[in-house]
Sequence to fold (832 residues):
Amino acid sequence: MSGTKEGAPFALKLRGVSKRFGGVQALNQVDFNVRAGEVHCLAGENGCGKSTLIKIVTGVYTPEPGAEIEVFGEPQTGMTPTQARDMGIAVIWQDLALFPHMTVAENIGFDQMVGGRPRLAALGQIRARAAQLLERLGVTLDLDARLNTLPIAQRQIVAIARALMGEARLIFMDEPTASLTQSETDALLGIVRTLSTEGVAIVFVSHRLAEVLEISSRVTVVRDGRLEGIYPTEGMTQARLGELMTGHTMDHQVIARDKSAAAPVLEIDGLSRHGQFEDISLTIRKGEVVGLTGLIGAGRTELAHALIGRTRPDRGMVKLCGREIRPRNIREAISLGIAYVSEDRLSLGLIQPQSIADNISITVLDRILGGLGLISPAQKKVLVSHWIEDLAVKIGRPEDAVSTLSGGNQQRVVLAKWLATEPRLLILDSPTVGVDVGARAGIFRIVHRLAEAGLAILLISDEVSEVYHNADRMLHMADGRLVETYDPRGTTVEAMEARIYA
Amino acid sequence: MSLIHRINRSLGSEALPLLGALLVVVVGFSLATPLFLTASNFGSMAFQLPVLGLLTLAMMVPILSGGLNLAIIYTANISGLTLATVLIAFGGPEAGIGAFLIGSLAALLVGTLAGLMMGLIVAYVGAHPILVSLAMMIFLRGLGEFLTRGGDISGFPDYMKVIGHGSLAGIPVPLLIFIAAAILWHIMLRRTRHGFSVFMIGSNIDAAEYSGIPTKRTLATLYALSGLICAVAGILMAARFNSVRVGHGEALLLVTVLACFLGGLDPFGGFGRVLPVCLALAILQALSSGLNLIGANQHLATAVWGLFLIAVMAIRWAAGRLNITRFGRT
Fold:
């Protein structure tokens, strides 16, 4: 946790900010402030008004009359985005708003290259400054690399450097870690800390509560457009923060049960694949939820890919319900009774532009065939409405594109399409990435119900607390090997995190 | 309102506007010339449309899968050439029905094989469909010109005229062939697992693969089917022109793409239906016939086609804007 910045001057002070869009009250009398050099977290569920607040501060929206806005001690009325930028306010949106076909240097210097009147861009100068900035952030990047050749984490750094190029003193970061791996996240948090010690104020928006508590000194919680409160993160717990954001008490007990007497569903013995995982042996029993955690790159997803036939293991044996299996592709894995919920819901889990109905029926086309082997619209309808009802997916019409749904509801559609295959083993790979705190609980209620019904579940996640609260047993994977098994009843989240991040 | 919704849901939201556009074109030309609304004009349109129509169906499926098939014309030509070769071998004008059947079967096989080869390369090598089909197009053209030495093959038996110029119960045989193909295509796309897979692949091939869709097999199959329907077009062209020449119908290649986009296919794949594409074909044919009847230059028809697509895109854009403002979007 960064030091509190009490006594430091305010970088931004808002009082009584409201905003209406037609009949929707997006923000209602919200107060907010952040001090110079402070890392302040803005927390709240999707649609609570976080983005509206950011857009008001950056001059995109005008607040309703009566709002008081003070930027670096100066009262403001009617800012434009250009004015906000000139005062040193920058936003790094989740989609980064960079230019994929331009180079790193061109992206960093973009705001300096466009101007009111035509002029020659001082490319040499911009390159030198860009190099200097990257050095200050402690990263090495090829200035001439095209942006679309870089991983997301490095693009993020380019976006930060671009903000700093414009002398930003107050930076908003919107879900900066949503698509980063754990180590990339750690690197980003390191950069945030560096900026903070240099006196730059940072407002951090994130769904990941552990991160929020780790990086910021204060957190402002917004719920349904209203200020829930401003809290110091000292002494705050994830559970408490989740409650404040959703307004519900979270059931954060350990649910672990002893399933050692149940029949084994998945038995892995000495499974290895060169460079990915080594000598993996584990058993998952009927009705058991086994958690698999560890750092990104530990080989968790790679192990899952071998189980579903995406890759072939070099050595070892996999048994499903006592029979040895060697699926050659996902189709075979499905017919054997293995379902895999990918960690990448946006590009692998669902076909975003296509309909909810098609996304649910895609895995079970064989089961909705009518006469002449043609797909029966009537059977499809029955299948789709059954799963929408069973998993309580909130949708408009089944023909709507799946992309119109919220993260939590999309994940329910993913579960629906896999449960429709009537699997015996369900592999959940980071099932709550990009899902609201409130909606996560709903997803896990479904998972527990499935386990009760006898499904064997492998839960992969890099959020230790998620595995801790939802698994019967936890496996710790590091460098491609299973290093330890934990019983949640005999340990704590903190103790486990200390081991995993050691 | 609810009727419109019902029609949109069962026929696709593109169908009604295109039907309206067709009506405007037909009424417009009827007022401009008394020759337009006549049986003979409609008859000649019905004979001209099917070749372009079949080739458009061949173009449609690869576009739905997110690809393109630039080789359709030469696949049709080389299939026609196969039929012609068999007929000549059996005596040209004296060749019997059996020879025609064997020749057609061989033509269908050649077309399917050409398509399958492209499909396999697209699926297993991962090369872009534009490159693969461009290569196939150039290969087939070169091969065809080599085999025919750039000339025509003609002199087919008389009974082939029935296919090219005959009518059954007053309906031109070529039109019947096209209607049958369009119905089969509609069923294939909307009711079979293969068709379902084509749409899913068109939107996101990786996610389709992760959902257990046999993406490689689907790609190979869909290009093979595209080649098959090209062969049908090739046989029909041979019957209509009573000759085969490599390069016949060359100008139709981009018109098929135009018809697909006019019919509401998503240029990036994943969305589109057969019926609106058929309506788009009818509009293009009516425009071209109508302009011809009022004595306009044939080149003008091509220009009007292009303008028409631009107008349709502008109208679709405006309608999209209208929907957004009407239903609100923040």
About this structure: Residues 298-327 of chain B form the longest helix (30 residues).
